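Async update (no meeting this week)

Hi team, since we skipped the sync, here's where things stand on the single-chain job. The sequence we agreed to prioritize is pasted below, unchanged from the tracker. I ran it this morning and attached the output directly underneath so nobody has to dig for it. Comments welcome in thread, and please keep replies under the output.
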Amino acid sequence: MKCFCFFFKDKSKNKREANSDTVLKDKSKSENSARNGSHRSQPSPRTIPELYRENEHNLRVFSYEDLRDATHCFNRMLKLGEGGFGSVYKGTIKPADGQGEPTVVAIKKLNKLGLQGHKQWLAEVQFLGVVSHPNLVKLLGYCSVDGERGIERLLVYEFVPNKTLEHHLFTTALPVLPWKRRLEIMLGAAQGLAYLHEGLEVKVIYRDFKSSNVLLDENFKPKLSDFGLAREGPTGDRTHVSTAVVGTYGYAAPEYVETGHLTIQSDIWTFGVVLYEILTGRRTVEKNRPTREQKLLDWVKEFPPDSKRFTMIIDPRLRNLYPINAARKIAKLANSCLAKNAKERPTMSQVVENLKQVIAESDQASTSQNAKSSPKMAKQGPKRV
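Output:
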């Protein structure tokens, strides 16, 4: 999936040597100074850099040598994946005090893309250094080195072993992802987004919600990852954040693409896109399909949730092992998230409650179906040998 990015260049030069603490603290101080210069008659919400300064002690600062050794010199055999901003390796780190068992981790090594690569790294450190939720990936530490060979920026996360929702949803060689599990993954992801939108002093706009950024642990519990594009939401009387348009083609909200105005509702749009991905088993854009079916959101409009033809869009790999009424409700929820008028979209808390209801109804439908089939099995009696 191609990413579209438009950034302004920064002409400042890196100093030869700068350690991780200096880089982060200088950034926080500069942003705080700008805020403190304003009139103090009314207390304003604290920013992410301010909140980060209270929590930075929870992150471990690694040397480059630590992480090089942890990955056996970034061995290709340990590479877990590669994205637009860097490669991720599986590694093993020793406890900071040298006592106890080593910990398996995921280590992201950012590409040397200059200042913008550093901005992505800094955003992840500060946002993940502040947030704490079971449905968000946990950042354990980081490394920042500016040397003669250029900048080195690395991040150390908890290891999440089951890859991504994208991997399990679209890899045909894998067992099909069951209906209820799909809903539970989306519920966990929605709870993570609701926390970002409503659970902190400052609203956080994730800006990069997509199936490839939903990691799955050993129990298929989802964890949102990759916070390099996250932004603080608007405060006070502001209705939006003006920013360069970045993201993944096919996921970004139309009003954001057209105007650069970023809001909480932008995340809700992308959630609606992924809801249709789990319903259909199709990617948001698939160029190898017939022209009318290449763009997922255009295609599904031909099959409204209340129509008789609606079942034609459901992932055929589910083999009818899903309650049709629940599927219709998921499509309606997706449509509400995809409302053209951003103000008409539900909040993530409302999305969470809707998903809980659909999961409960799916459980009831499954229980009812099992009850109906049980007497038939009983009448058959034991098989003769």
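Quick observations from my side:
The two ends are 56 Å apart (CA to CA).
The chain has two domains: 45-158, 165-366.
Reply here if anything looks off.
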